[in-house]
Amino acid sequence: MKFIILLRKGYTKPFSTNLRNAGRLDVLHQVAISTFFISKGIRRNNSLDAFLYGPGDPPLHMQIDGKSLYDVRTDEETWKDIINNILSGKTHPGISIKKEGIESYLKNLKERIFVLREDGENIQNYEIKENDIFLLGDHIGLPIKLENYAIKRGAIKLSIGKVPYLAYQVVTIINYIFDKNGASRNS
Asked: What are 5-51's pLDDT values in tens digits?
């Protein structure tokens, strides 16, 4: 599965502060952990696309691919170092970055896209498939303009419930539903 997150304040330049103070890049860390990590393994079939729009040189598109992601741990300090290295132009296995906005990326996608909203259709009405894409907002949420853009392109508003969960919790719940329904995973 693919998860896409918009980080409206996420720094697009190297930083010396913690992830939270770097435009809430702690949300990226939390979502990455939920996207990829399971006990004693990594979900190799998942990917994460983060769009950073904060100070520096926005927008930036950070792609994290579970198939080639290595040399990572779950702690925040490791991810701070990795993100800083990527923003500095260095490389890390399974992570790349390029200058690209979220709308131009979305227009090229052909797979089924779900926009996560509390008022969307119940997730239980859908069979979650391995090639599905889930569009998430950060601590601020998705702009209505972006939601409408995605919906005009065929995205489906989807809800995991009326409770406004944190982004990383949404990812965990979607992975749980996918796993519960008997989908096989490479770890």
From this structure: 999 999 999 999 999 999 999 999 999 999 999 998 999 999 999 99
At residue 137, what are phi and psi to the nearest 5 degrees?
A: -105, 165
44: nearest Cα among 110, 81, 94, 113: 94
For residue 115, give every residue at least 6 positions away whose Cβ sits within 8 Å of its Cβ, in sequence order, or none.
Answer: 135, 142, 147, 150, 151, 155, 156, 157, 158
> What is residue 41's three-state secondary structure?
strand
For residue 63, give the 3-state DSSP assignment: strand
What are phi and psi for residue 165, nearest 5 degrees? -75, 160
Is this prediction's pTM over 0.90? Answer: yes
Element (H, E) at 171: helix 167-180
The residue behind tokens 């904060």 is: 54
CA–CA distance, 110 with 167 (Å, rounded to integer)? 23
